[in-house]
Amino acid sequence: MSILKVARLGNPVLIRRADEVDLRTLASAGIQRLIDDMIETMRAVHGVGLAANQVGIPQKLCIIDLSLREDKAPLIVLINPLIVERDGSVEAEEGCLSIPGYLTSIKRAEKVFLKGVNREGKDIAIEAEGLLARAIQHELDHLEGLLLLDRMSPIKREFFKRRYKKQLSEAKGK
Ligand code: ZN
């Protein structure tokens, strides 16, 4: 396994919508190794989630691991995930491995019901609330090419853009 480079704000791969994973490729060594490398990378930087486009692969694949925050939280590998139901609304602080050192309060659905496929290619359905629901929404945003700044109020976004002006203009220029 190897540790992959995590794309930072300014890298155009982060603002492009990821493509669906061709499920026929799931059994291949390449994609299984990518999943293992993503797990190792996420753990090395003490993250709770990582989307494939954050490591430069624009495919609908992400991993979530809350075991650093919650006992016995399972590692979740989500392929072609889709939120089919959302309920409630809650605001809490969030960070992102692609915007290191930045935390901001983001409003998200309180509960989500999600469908997708696991790394073995089996259909899965997850009903989540709390931190898991937040992590799922954050990672699925990545797969749509959305970052924290896309979820901020207009005023907050302006402040954010001023702070990260250089990185953001680099993304646009490419
Ligand atoms: Zn993120």
Describe this structure in words.
By secondary structure, this protein is α+β, with helices and mostly antiparallel strands. The protein has helices at 29-44, 130-143, 154-163, 165-173, and strands at residues 49-51, 61-65, 75-87, 90-95, 103-108, 111-117, 123-129. The protein has one domain (12-173): Alpha-Beta Complex (Peptide Deformylase), CATH 3.90.45.10. The strands form two sheets. It has a five-stranded antiparallel β-sheet with strand order 1-2-3-6-7, with helices on both faces. It is globular and about 45 Å long.
What topology does this entry show?
Layout (H helix, E strand, L loop, with lengths): L28 H16 L4 E3 L9 E5 L9 E13 L2 E6 L7 E6 L2 E7 L5 E7 H14 L10 H10 L1 H9 L1
Antiparallel strand pairs: 1-2, 2-3, 3-6, 4-5, 6-7
This protein binds zinc ion.
The site of zinc ion (ZN) has 5 residues, from helix 2.
What's the gist of this structure?
The chain is of the alpha+beta class and 174 residues long. It has helices at 29-44, 130-143, 154-163, 165-173; strands at 49-51, 61-65, 75-87, 90-95, 103-108, 111-117, 123-129.
- What is the chain-wise order of helices and strands? HEEEEEEEHHH
Gyration radius, rounded:
16 Å
* Overall shape: globular
Which fold name corresponds to the CATH topology? Peptide Deformylase
User: Number of helical segments?
Assistant: 4
Low-confidence stretches: none
Q: Tell me roughly what share of residues is in helical segments.
A: 25-40%
The end-to-end distance, rounded to whole angstroms, is 31 Å
Mean pLDDT level: 94
Topology, number of strands:
7
CATH homology superfamily: Peptide deformylase
Major beta-sheet overview: 5 strands, antiparallel
Structural class: alpha+beta
User: What small-molecule ligands were found?
Assistant: zinc ion
In percent terms, what proportion of residues is strand?
A: 25-35%
CATH classification class: Alpha Beta
What order do the strands of the largest sheet run in, or round the barrel if closed?
Answer: 1-2-3-6-7
CATH architecture: Alpha-Beta Complex
Counting structural domains, the number is 1
